[in-house]
Amino acid sequence: MKAIKINPLDNVMVALQNLTSDMTIDIDDQCIELKEAIDKGHKFAIADIAEGEKVIKYGNPIGYASKNIVLGTLVHTHNVKTTLSGKIDYHYKPEVSRVAATRPKTFMGYKRVSGDVGIRNELWIVPTVGCVNGIGMAMLEELKRSVDLSHVDAVEIFKHNYGCSQLGKDHQDTQKILADMVKHPNAGGVLLLGLGCENNQIQDMLALLEGYPMDRVRTLVTQEVDDEVEIGVAMLKELSDAMEKDVREPLPVSLLKIGLKCGGSDGLSGITANPLVGAFSDELIGQGGSTILTEVPEMFGAEQLLMNRCVTEAIYDKTVKMIDDFKDYYTFYNQPIYENPSPGNKKGGITTLEDKSLGCTQKSGTAPVVDVLAYGQLLTTHGLNLLSAPGNDLVAATALGASGCHMVLFTTGRGTPFGSFVPTVKIASNSQLANKKKHWIDFNAGRLVEGASMEAVLEDFYHYVIEVASGRLVNNELHNYREIAIFKTGVTL
Fold first, then answer.
1. What residue ranges do the domains of the chain occupy?
2. How many other CB atoms are there within 10 angstroms of residue 326's CB atom?
3. What is the CA radius of gyration of the chain?
4. For 3-81, CATH number?
5. Is residue 88 scored above 90 in pLDDT?
6. Helical H runs in 334-406?
């Protein structure tokens, strides 16, 4: 197959390989002769599109023609502009459907005293402030030299530059994310490491942890002791010893919470990787599990489709508020609401924000939206949740983990090595990327345009995710690409 028409209403097709000028494409009982070369992932017109007429992809407008577009020619940023501008009057038109599931219903995980379950048994240092990052690293180095850690999945410090000289919402967001990390069930033990003079005092963090079982949490204020490394290592060893009791056991997949994220997209992302993750999300939710979709700016242009899937008008109202709050956030800083996709996205064939969003939101499948979460808020309602966070890869992935996700499914058409503090599974939209970056990519969805059926690829992908939940390491873990980023005031796209 040379090209694909995604929806019967579309007036463009997407090239599945590099196409040359004068090549012919058969579609809908017509033979289209290309007037110019079309790169893989890019769009070409399958009808004349007059200036001002809507360009349709995924069955929805992705912009309007800024000039006349001739049949068989490239459709991209040079002749398409966004249709989006300012705020929109939304209307609740519910189209809620239910999803069923048939695949295996258990994974091997860890039960926690808190009542939650984890898919990893890791030992973490969570600094309250960036000033103690180096001290934490020294503790880890000494611990690894002196203690047998073979029973621990990983030992990590999640360094950051925050926790002091912050005020207001920035300060509160830092505290919320760090407190959520301390409570995350993928950690079998946590040392909360402070300096002593920072804004983010340990006693304030403990107030946010009130009611949480603290048997696997230790705190250390380094200014209050003589040898902070010696004492910190002793605390970490104590936690490590306690973690020897932790064993994996069969647990229902209904307990899994999985984040949905994409980055560095291309023209195939909305055809392969994102629909695959959407099918997985439906399968997991059908078994009682939960997924979280975030990247609010990359819902712009597709938000009405999500709103129509809200289970109640109250959830619809929360969705509208989430969307409008993000728009207000941009306008407050005199920034454009509907900024075009990144250079990498454009190079891969993404033309407008609607083009990006309509592909991105396919990661949510067809399940109803059951709740909308604020930044730093923990998931409590089983099913598909929306989360208020930006599109930035590391900020959004960190936010997903902080909301309780055990792992993040990250689709990409361009590739990226990064990982957050939870396993970050990279799903390639095309086989070229999967083959080139095997040390980055964990699963290849490009097979979907090479003859493999969605059912067959979903079967493989579902079992792969269950293996990851049961302990199989993904590439960001194998290469120790792990870090966090916290949302800050000032526009982050």
1. 3-81, 122-245, 252-478
2. 18
3. 24
4. 2.30.130.110
5. no
6. 343-347, 353-360, 393-402
* CA atoms of 348 and 267, how far apart (whole Å): 6
Q: What amino acid occupies position 85? A: S
Lookup result for tokens 């490491």: 193
Collapsing DSSP to helix, strand or coil, 274 comes out as helix
Task: Give 19's DSSP letter.
Answer: B
The contacts of residue 316 (CB under 8 Å, 6+ apart) are: 92, 94, 307, 310
Give the whole-angstrom CA distance, residue 13 versus residue 60.
13
CA dihedral 67, 71, 72, 76 (to 10 degrees): 30
Task: Report the alpha-carbon distance of residue 25 to residue 36 in Å, rounded.
Answer: 13
Q: Mapping DSSP to helix (H, G, I), strand (E, B) and coil, where does residue 390 land?
A: coil
Residue 271's nearest CA partner among 95, 23, 55, 7 is: 7
- Any idea what DSSP says for residue 362? G
Closest CA to 192 of 136, 274, 118, 141: 136
CATH code for the domain defined by 122-245: 3.40.50
Let me know how long the chain is.
493
The residue ranking higher by pLDDT, 83 or 482, is 482
C-alpha dihedral sign at 463, 464, 469, 472: positive
Residue identified by tokens 């808190």 is 114
CB count in 10 Å sphere of residue 245: 8
Specify whether the CB–CB gap between 458 and 283 falls below 8 A.
yes
| Max Cα–Cα distance, the chain, nearest Å | 81
Is the dihedral angle over the CA atoms 462, 319, 390, 353 positive or is it negative?
positive
pLDDT in tens, 378-422: 999 999 999 999 999 999 999 999 999 999 999 999 999 999 999
Alpha carbon distance 269, 274 (integer Å) = 6
From 424, 370, 381, 382, select the one nearest 399 (Cα to Cα).
424
CB 188 within 8 A of CB 246: yes
Report residue 440 as tokens.
């980055």
Q: Which amino acid is at 97?
A: S
- CB neighbour list of residue 324: distance below 8 Å, 6 or more residues apart: 87
Q: Which residues of 343-369 are buried (b: 16+ CB within 10 A; e: fewer)?
A: ebbbbbbbbbbbbbbbbbbbbbbbbbb
245 three-state secondary structure: coil
Q: CB–CB of 205/191 below 8 Å?
A: no
Q: What is the model's pLDDT at position 103?
A: 82
Angle 393-402/168-182 helices, nearest 10 degrees? 60
Query: Quick count: other Cβ atoms within 10 Å of Cβ 5?
Result: 16
Confirm if 244 and 152 have CB atoms less than 8 A apart: no
Q: What is the pLDDT of residue 490?
A: 66
